[in-house]
Amino acid sequence: MNMLFSLAKPATVNVSVFNLFGQKVKQLANSFFPQGQSELLWDGVDAQGNPVASGAYFLALEVDGRMEKRMVLFQR
Fold first, then answer.
1. Domain boundaries, the chain
2. How confident is the model at residue 14 (pLDDT cuts 50, 70, 90)?
């Protein structure tokens, strides 16, 4: 699953996937990104490389320590 985001200025971005119990499944990014559009990919696996169960997951995007977006992802 691809996720596109755009930054008005360079910033540190933290993107994580959580299950419905609020447990972190995988951290997709915690690094510096340049201004403009960037893309991240979640391949449907957890931090240990195991495929996750089908269902709904939450994606949290923080920019410079501030929560910017929360989304629901559906994994088949």
1. 2-75
2. very high
Question: Domain 2-75, what architecture?
Answer: Sandwich (2.60)
Structure tokens at 62: 């923080």
Predicted confidence (pLDDT) at residue 73 exceeds the cutoff of 90: no
pLDDT at 72 over 90: no
**E strand spans, the chain:** 2-7, 11-18, 24-33, 36-41, 55-63, 66-75
- C-alpha distances (whole Å) from 10 to each of 21, 22, 35, 62 are 32, 29, 4, 13
Report pTM. Answer: 0.89
Cβ 64 vs Cβ 44: under 8 Å: no
Query: Bridge-partner residues for 11, per DSSP?
Result: 33
Determine the straight-line distance between the first and last CA of the chain, rounded to whole angstroms. 11
